[in-house]
Design a protein that fits this description.
By secondary structure, this protein is α+β, with helices and mostly antiparallel strands. It contains 5 helices and 5 strands, in the order H-E-H-E-E-E-E-H-H-H. Strand 4 and strand 5 form a beta hairpin.
Length: 153
């Protein structure tokens, strides 16, 4: 009976650790000069068009309504690239590992970068790191983000 109680306590502790473990998917966050509403509207249309041929690979584009100032590319539920425009900056968030999971999305980002002007004084940061094995497990089980997703072929 004592062994059963210990086993139940360990299972509860493991469940508690998974539920409350601080895990997240890191992203590179680059800031550029903000785009006008019309320029972002054009970029939004280009993102939607770029996402269409990637749909069979498992890529989806969430662009909201025509007035939305953000666009998100996902690979089978994993957010890979987020574009956000506001009055202070145009931000590009690229998830760690996106080049491996969704090279088509990174190709869109790379075609976009030469058209943008980086904000002055933006600090240079090291690239985002991939989550460890336990973090990846927690993201998959708790948050439904499976970093094993592959939208490259």
């Amino acid at each position: 009976m004592k062994k059963i109680a210990v086993a139940i306590a360990l299972a509860c502790a493991a469940g508690f650790a998974v539920v409350f473990f601080p895990a997240g998917l890191e992203a590179d966050n680059d800031h550029f000069e903000p785009l006008s509403r019309s320029d972002f509207g054009l970029l939004r249309e280009q993102a939607i068009a770029a996402g269409e041929p990637l749909r069979p690979l498992g890529i989806t584009v969430s662009a909201g309504d025509s007035g939305s100032q953000s666009v998100q590319f996902e690979c089978r539920g994993v957010p890979e690239l987020v574009l956000i425009n506001d009055e202070r900056a145009f931000s590009i968030l690229t998830s760690a590992g996106a080049a491996r999971r969704a090279p088509g999305v990174i190709g869109f980002r790379d075609r976009l970068l030469p058209r943008l002007r980086r904000l002055a004084g933006q600090p240079v940061k090291p690239p985002a790191s991939q989550p460890g094995a336990f973090e990846a497990f927690v993201l998959r089980q708790r948050d439904g983000i499976d970093l094993r997703a592959d939208c490259s072929k």
